[in-house]
Amino acid sequence: MALVVILTLLAAQVYDAVTDKDGVAGLDLPILNAAMHLRSPVLNAFTIGYTDIAGEIGMPVIAVTAILILALRRRSWTPVLLIGAAGIGSLLITIAGKDLVGRHRPPLADAVPPYEYSPSFPSGHTLNAVVVIGIIAYLLVLRRHTAHARVLLICAAAVYAFTVGLSRIYLGHHWFTDVLAAWALGAAWLALIITAHRLYLTVRRRRESGALTQAQSA
User: Which end of the chain, C or N, has fewer beta carbons within 10 A?
Assistant: First the structure.
């Protein structure tokens, strides 16, 4: 929960910088200019395909596929609830942020087509990558029995979320602070879902332990 609070405060600081047009927001234009100098036709095509995985079509497909596979294999509603909460929360945070801030995206002249016209803050693709892929990684980690496998899953999810955010800046579809806020908000929401699930598991184990103790006493 401390992590949730810290990440939420970080996102709030980024929001203040964006609305006041100072602080970390001063990095937006220099970072966009640096990204533009890295572009090439081949890298542009690859990045468009890569970022679309976390888009309006790609991420729901990944989420539904993960729900079906994990729920059926484990015969549990847990994947349905956790992935569903992650996805719905990501969508609501994105909609609320865009409506609240109403920020314009970088100029189309500085962006790689296909162009996007919805408000810029925060980056929905980045939020999806953090939250949905993060909760899927968490569910997979729960069934891994070695530290090596767990670390590998966590690192893979973190690298994916990080690179999706970079792809949004590279393409000129978002400012750096749009992505920074999405990383913070997404991580906060992910941490909140995981904390709630860990608390649920703790309560359930204590109840089962108490019931077992009573049965043995009887």
Answer: C
Peptide bond into 113 cis (omega under 30): no
- Taking Cα atoms as reference points, which of 128, 126, 122, 152 lies closest to residue 140? 152
- Tokens 């609501």, residue located: 92
Backbone angles phi, psi at 121, to 5 degrees: -105, 125
Domain positions in the chain: 2-17+30-201
Cβ–Cβ < 8 Å for 71, 79: yes
Min mean pLDDT across 17-26, 28-37, 84-93, 164-173 is at 17-26
- Cβ distance 131 to 86 under 8 Å? yes
Residue range 165-180: mean pLDDT, rounded? 96
Cα 160 to Cα 179: distance, rounded to the nearest angstrom: 13
Residue with tokens 């899953």: 153
- φ and ψ at residue 60, rounded to 5 degrees: -60, -35
Q: Is residue 90 a contact partner of residue 128, using CB atoms and an 8 Å limit? A: yes
Task: Determine if the peptide bond prior to 60 is cis (ω within 30°).
Answer: no
**Termini Cα distance of the chain:** 39
Name residue, tokens 């533009």: 36
- DSSP characters over 100-168: HH-PPPSPGGGSPSSP--S--SS-HHHHHHHHHHHHHHHHHHHT--SHHHHHHHHHHHHHHHHHHHHHH
